[in-house]
Amino acid sequence: MLHFDGLQSHVLARCVDRFREAFDRDLVAVLARELRGFRPAEAREILDELDVMQRQLVTRPSLHSPQPSEAWPSTAVHEIHARLLKRIVLSQRLALAREIDEPRQRTTHREAIGWLERELRVLDALMQLEWMVDARPARLPRLTDYLTIRHAEALAQLGPPPPATQFDDKFGILAAGSALLPELAHVRARCELRERSVALCYLDIDDFKAYNTRFGETRIDRDLLAPFMAALEAAAFMRGNAYRIGGDEYVVVLPNADTETAGRFVHGFAAALRELRCPGVDPLPTVSAGVVELRPDCALTEREALSRADRAKAFAKSAGKACSASYGHPLMRESDLALLAAR
What we know:
The protein is α+β, with helices and mostly antiparallel strands. It contains twelve helices and nine strands. The strands form two sheets. It has a seven-stranded mixed β-sheet. Strands 1-2 form a two-stranded antiparallel ribbon.
């Protein structure tokens, strides 16, 4: 049995309720409308399993019920539901994190932040439980199981595609960093319909400050950064999109790519840098990189994934530079960081 304390039970019950509502709205109701009342057998089985789980979990009307959470009864859910329960927690953790992302950016007040993240902290703690780490998330039926991709994309409420990419104002070679998160969200939604991952590569030029000190900013902009960004744009062309985040930091979004694919991309770009033409600038630049894979069931928002990639990049730099690092587990915990082997 999977045992939960009162607060965990309460939060999980809310997650199951919200998940059921979204599952019915985004799949069951859509198929019934588009296919003249058709209800897939596997969808009915999931709804039945959700009914069982709801009966096993305690529900409360509010996370801040007058009754102290310590007094809420603990519950237990049968192990047979572990895979579906993990899928629910992952999806609801992502949905909740997206809901609070914008208000979270409006404040630095610790109490306000604690209020916004109160339920998210419970889900993050649940995701660290041993059975949750080990369980393989259940696969859910998708619109593309029953409808053509053209119709599924039209019905999935992905929203309009982002406007044409805005180039970085200073150089006009790579996309502006401000375009990264909305474009990543759109690409991620399209890949999710196809059960494909999206990879992020966060690149940092090694020892960049030393270049500026030795050659000066004007010359480095002209003779190092411009050819560097042109090489990065060419490497990503027709494979993804590259963004300038700062003076020496760049992000590449690779649709339909996993960690191994992204690692090969970084390794190939590092090899291309050895042939870079930087008149009078030596030594030629190297990069440290952090790679993350956003799987279809990833529970992180786009902003959180970018932060994880940044942390992996910092890990690579601390390991000696001119290398790349990633996470060895989909939860992307600090303890999962490791260097990627060159391929």
